[in-house]
Amino acid sequence: MIKHLINGKKVESRETFESLNPANNETVAEVARGGEAEINAAVQAAKEAFPGWAGKPAAERAKLMHRLGELITQNVPELAEMETRDTGQVIGQTKKALVPRAADNFHFFAELAKHMDGESYQSDTGHLNYTMWNPVGVCALISPWNVPFMTATWKTAPCLALGNTAVLKMSELSPMTADRLGELALEAGIPAGVFNIVHGYGAETGEPLVRHPDVRSISFTGSTVTGNRIVQQAGLKKFSMELGGKSPFIVFDDADYERALDAAVFMIFSNNGERCTAGSRILVQRGIYDKFVADFTARASRLSVGDPLDPNTIVGPMISRDHQKKVMHYIELGRKEGARITFGGGTPDLPAHLKNGNWVQPTVFADVDNRMKIAQDEIFGPVPCLIPFATEEDALRIANDTQYGLSSYVWTESTGRALRMGKGVEAGMVFINSQNVRDLRQPFGGVKASGTGREGNHYSFEVFAEAKNVCVSY
Ligand code: NAD
């Protein structure tokens, strides 16, 4: 059974829920179902642990963070398989990219925390001002179900390295790897109470956590709807909101065609299309549009769909039956809206042991009008919308005609156009002639309905540290 981790101890609740394997809907684990009582206990433990943890030299905390990173690295095969069983994310991704990246998160923020340099200003009125960075206190870390281990560590690492204590709430759909993270944190020597985990549903567990008066900061990753709700419920706290997206992937007729095609396929079908930064609206210039639709469709039709534990699988199942139904609903809607399906549209034919999974065939919609619902709503599955455009101005107008602004991708060999698009696209991140390649020093986050705040590098100070000014008269 997966239990909570509160004050260094595994704790049960009276009730439990099941975590299911998306590939066959068999139970992977019984999970303790937390509520207000468990949240209160976890926040209290984090509050009591805070002074001791914050008072440690940064280098000592960093040593423990590095140790945790090493333990993750030593356990990559076990963690990757667990994540794949719990989420349906394919093993090729969890083993090679997502779990190793979690270890990097700890190593990166361990080093950053040792160099939290402030500024100083000497004025000619005889005053010296200097800034210092202090930890915030107890932080609520809330994770979604897509890439949960990577996301949990992306929050936990800066939070703890900078001297805060934490209560982590995973999605009820993907609790397993966080449970191992808690165990590894204790094994690394992180003191009891510094890192707590409470499992449960959003309304029962998430709400009491974000409302709790002793929680000083919230780092949330999830949907725009939930993000809005939390901002209204939480009261005066620090926030980072990493929310949904409908990112444009723009291919001009002067692009390196084959590289753009490869990246377009990768950015919508990897991670089963359940990716916040997915290039889900593929805008293609008229001159190459018909060829691109044909070539993209051919690539989509060759993707191997099936058992996520098979290293050759590219597209696995959707996280839950409800989410599968949501994606299928959008496929029906796209048909009704008049978009043209060039591949997919149903469920794949799979062997008997996978029949009960949450499957959706990779599905390509061509000739999409950007005002259609399938182009405006985040489908969060392997369902791209291909949209033709005529000129650079058209491309920019269509790219920005969305409530979201998380990521974007621009493919062109023209330097001037690349720079103009880089400036004009309304998004937190623009990748030029590149798929989404993360450098942990870059600010990660979105604009408009995709969120507020940035995480990564010193940008994580926004949510996990307070700047204090000290003014000395001399
Ligand atoms: P969700 O909003 O349904 O849930 C996210 C988390 O919030 C879960 O742990 C859930 O239990 C919790 N929650 C729900 N209601 C709550 C409440 N009232 N108070 C506190 N917590 C509550 O999102 P999801 O379906 O798990 O994840 C998919 C979404 O996450 C997509 O929209 C995706 O784009 C987004 N996402 C964004 C990023 C990013 O970095 N911008 C990264 C990954 C996923």
Automatic annotation (TrEMBL):
Pfam families: Aldedh (PF00171). GO terms for molecular function: 5-carboxymethyl-2-hydroxymuconic-semialdehyde dehydrogenase activity; aldehyde dehydrogenase [NAD(P)+] activity. It comes from Pusillimonas noertemannii. Transmembrane segments: none annotated. This is 5-carboxymethyl-2-hydroxymuconate semialdehyde dehydrogenase. PROSITE patterns: ALDEHYDE_DEHYDR_CYS, ALDEHYDE_DEHYDR_GLU. GO terms for biological process: 4-hydroxyphenylacetate catabolic process. Gene3D superfamilies: Aldehyde Dehydrogenase, Chain A, domain 1, Aldehyde Dehydrogenase, Chain A, domain 2. Residues 13-470 form the Aldehyde dehydrogenase domain. Belongs to the aldehyde dehydrogenase family. Keywords: NAD, Oxidoreductase.
